[in-house]
Each structure stands twice: as C-alpha cells, then as structure tokens.
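Hey, I'm writing a tutorial for new members on how sequence and structure tokens pair up, and I'd like a real worked example in the thread rather than a made-up one. If someone can provide the structure for the chain below, I'll link this post from the tutorial.
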Amino acid sequence: MSRRSRTGPISPLIVFGAVLTAAGAALYVLPGPGLPLLALGAFVLATGAAVWAAARHR
C-alpha cells in the first residue's frame, strides 16, 4: 500500500514550466535556425501531452 503524498498531485502548470525550461535550454544550445524550430515544435507537442496527462491524473 502506498502512502499519500503530503503535497498533493503534480500541477499541470509545473509540468508545463518544466517542459518549457527544457525547450529553452535546447533552443539555446542548438545551432542554426532550422533545427531549433523543429525542436520547438516537438517540445510544444510534448508540453501539450504532458499537460493533458497531468490533468487526466486528477
């Protein structure tokens, strides 16, 4: 039997912020205009999926 968390479930806003932070780091590191745009699109898609999954958990 698992214990209940004291802080409650993870907020979709925290998940969204974590994904945006990762996207920003990737855009900062990656060279050239083409690949960062592709990475941004992938991270936006991942953000939507993460927010949807986190909201569904409630």
